[in-house]
Amino acid sequence: MENLLFSEYKLGNNLLKNRVVMAPMTRSRAINNIPNDLMAQYYGQRAGAGLIITEGTSPSPNGLGYSRIPGLFNKEQAQGWKKVTDAVHAKGSRIFVQLMHTGRVGHQLNLPEGGRVLAPSAIQVSGNIWTDQKQMQSYPVPEEMTLNEIEDAINEFVESAKLAVEAGFDGVELHGANGYLIEQFINATANRRTDEYGGSAENRIRFALEIARRTVSAIGADRVGIRVSPYGTACDLGVYEGLEETYELLAAELNKLGLVYIHVVDHSAMGAPSVSDSVKEKIRKNFKGAYILSGGFDAVKAGKDIEEGKGDLVAFGRPFISNPNLVEKLKTGAELRMADMATFYTPGEKGYTDYPLD
């Protein structure tokens, strides 16, 4: 029987050549936060995937919390990304940019002049973060966003989505996962607000829904997806009362907007807390667009889960780093090359574009 992982799939207006998705992975190669030729080569090498979702890309100077992550809020950045989208399209693949505002997960040294570490509430992340200037530094206490600043951030996502279309992207993925700004609003352990953006589940999901609603209005629902991570504990987030009901409501409200997909993070295969089947089922039941599975898949399990209706597309992350031709290897069952973790976030081609293409 044919493995459905390698079958075509209609995602909105895009016909994908297979159901393999290259997951978004921060690689920290964007010098001065501008996409470059090296990044175009990297993504082009991996365009065997039906859909590529880029590394987290900030829609705002305030969202560039990590060293050397790309932005998409000015023309120079858009021109850099155009090299990437051209390289991917030349290989017959489709590409969405992941819009990621880091919020409180950042450091002033990683931000451009005038950039600020903002969050729904002034709650500091524990631990340290890398800066190129002074190496490891403690996370700062973020500034609690005013209502005007929330409005500004929403508009930044929308303007970035418009630039994404200009840069040739087939769509955008709103990063509502992994402890970054959108999830900081959703998660009750990071959001202690008492206004219309805090407290109840309806209020905590308002930021995500406003961004989604206005982005859909700006570029079309078939070009907008979202990534979520229920039960995720990245960047100091915790589990809270009513978590599953929060995601059930979020899925239903996003469904009303007609988003093209929802991408559900499950990193339990890498040691993260497990994501309950019940919350996945609640999301699947309430969201009728495409569902992207992720987390510890091989070709057989991916095909089986698609066959059983658990998802429509399957995202693969780290295997794509060291196996540019991952799709072909998944088809043939060839042994996968292991990635060098020491070069995940270092500048330059080593551990980035120099993996063999066989």
| Helix and strand sequence | EEEHEHEEEEEHEHHHEHEHEHEHH
Average of per-residue pLDDT values: 97
What strand order characterises the main sheet?
3-4-5-10-11-12-13-14
Give the oligomeric state of the chains in this entry, treating copies of one chain as homo and distinct chains as hetero. single chain
Task: Give the strand tally.
Answer: 14
What amount of the residues lies in strands? 15-25%
Gap between N and C termini: 26 Å
Structural class: alpha/beta
Evaluate the radius of gyration: 19 Å
Q: Low-confidence runs (pLDDT<50, min 5 residues)?
A: none
Helix content: 25-40%
**Overall outline:** globular
- Main sheet specs: 8 strands, parallel, barrel
User: Number of helix segments?
Assistant: 11
Please tag this protein with its features:
358 residues; alpha/beta; eight-stranded parallel β-barrel; two-stranded antiparallel sheet; 11 helices; 32% helix
Quick synopsis:
The chain is of the alpha/beta class. The chain contains eleven helices and 14 strands. The chain is 32% helix and 16% strand.
Could you characterize the architecture of this molecule?
- The protein has 358 residues and is an alpha/beta fold.
- 32% of the residues lie in helices and 16% in strands.
- The chain has eleven helices and 14 strands.
- It has an eight-stranded parallel beta barrel. Strands 1-2 form a two-stranded antiparallel sheet.
- The longest helix is centred in the middle third of the chain and has 20 residues.
- It is globular.
- It starts with 8 loop residues before the first strand and ends in a 26-residue tail after the last helix.
- The mean pLDDT is 97.
